[in-house]
# Entry
Amino acid sequence: MIEVYLRMFAALGAVVGLIYLAASFMRKRQGKPGLLTMMAYQSFGPKKGIALLRLGGEILLLGVTPTELKLMKVYSWRELGLPETGSPEGSGPRQGGKDGLAR
# Structure
C-alpha cells in the first residue's frame, strides 16, 4: 500500500515539475518582442477603430471594422523621425480604447 502512495507522490511531483518548467518557459517568452507589435489603438465604437502596428522596420496604419482590416498607410521609421533600429520595447504611443487592445 505504501508503494502505491510513493508512486502517486512521484507522479504528482513530476506533473508539478512539468507545470513549473512550462510556466518559466512562457515567462521568458513573454518578455521578448515579436515581429509584430501594437504601438497604439484608438477605438471609435464597438469593434471599430484604427491601429498602429510595428512590423519590422515599418509602421502600418490599419482601419479596423467588424468585417475587415484595411491597410490605410505604411510609414517608414525615417518618415516618422524614429531611429532606424526601431523603438525600444515599451516606448512609443499607447492609447487603448475601451476594448483595451493596446498592450
Summary: Strands lie at 36-45, 48-55, 58-64, 69-76. Confidence is low (pLDDT under 50) at residues 86-103. The chain has two domains: 1-32, 34-103. DSSP finds one helix and four strands in the chain.
